[in-house]
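#structure-requests
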Amino acid sequence: MIQAFTLLAGLILGFGAFGPAGAEATHSSTARTSPILVSSRAVSTALVAPARQEAAEGFCESPRVRQDVKDLSAEEKARLVAAIHGLKATPSPYDPRYTYYDQFVRWHQLAVVVSKAQGGGGIAHHNPAFPPWHRKLLWLYENGLCEVSGDPSLALPYWDWTDPASTAAVFSVDFMGPGGRAKDGYAVTEGPFNRDVWQLNILPYDPATRAMTHEKYLVRALGIDTGESYRVLLPTIVEVNNTLQVPIFDTNPWGVNSNGSFRNTLEGFVIDPATGKMDPDRQTMHNIVHDWVGGIFRRATGPDQFIISQGTMEPLDVSPNDPIFFLHHANVDRIWASWQQRYPGVDNYAPQGGEARCPFDTDDPGPGQSFPPVVDREHVMMTAHDVDEEPVPGMRLDDWMYPFCLARYQSTAVFGDLTPRSQVDLEALGYRYQEYYALPPAPSR
């Protein structure tokens, strides 16, 4: 496998550098300033939880440093691309029904589908577990990259979407490849993940969504949206600073309507002051980046006929089909890590409590098998968690996180570090970031 990996890396090195047209114009012009960053060496000790743990064991070296994509060399980019293709070509060590890469897509899909089947209470999204659940997913993905490549020095880079130079590096033809063109239905036709070499095996579970996103190749309509009043712009450093200024990790009712919540702000939900609930017409931060990469566009089906289509990063359940997902979420994780500089340790996580059991017993039925009935998404988004209520299992500090807690994974590395508590300490997880966002002045709590 290492020989094949080396050959693939050599082929990928043949791609030339190419940045997306107009990359410097993809960010909001509202009060944009240059990102203020802090070296990881200056802050690494602030990220340690009060109770020290040994670094999590895996195939990657520890400690490792996650770099900004723009600082990767051509060789580093080629090694990472080859490792991603290695995941796609290798059976999952956790479930042989999937490739190693598709395993991550499936875990994400299981969390979304089961969450909606339970009434939208949230598993990996729309609740306090959003940051720790994805931190665990990224750790497992990074560990897989090291395993299939045989290279323990690999580390997952991050895409700083506030920086046009980082954006240009992500969408260069020798890395993730550029966005698609309208004449091709926005299919990705260039780069190492073009439609001739990167196949999608797991499609959206919902028939209506699948009709809008049915392609088995990557689709990226960068920054495109059909809404007349909905602007799709990448987050700015001002928005990141506003997020970092929120001093409370999460608040009741522990969902999309949580006001004064760092997690809800980071996830990208905006509270309408008139209603005190989530504004369905506004998205920021994490959410808007999914919208920007995938895009929503009209596809012609005949003379004066069209349907609304979405890019690959748009459907929530299968958005990891695009490898950009992991670079995006590395930056989301980096923002949480920056916030933790001021509010370190498990005491700053909310809600506290929890229990060591799997909150859902819905096993993975396998490819092509039906899921539990799913409630209407829009109804869930507008009504779930709109009054004071107790946090549900799966989101508290010591709850087990689904689907990693399923019995089928008990003898694997997936079954370790199952709680949000286990994801708080970066040093125990064996990594740090090259640079962190500088914290704005501390607000009163």
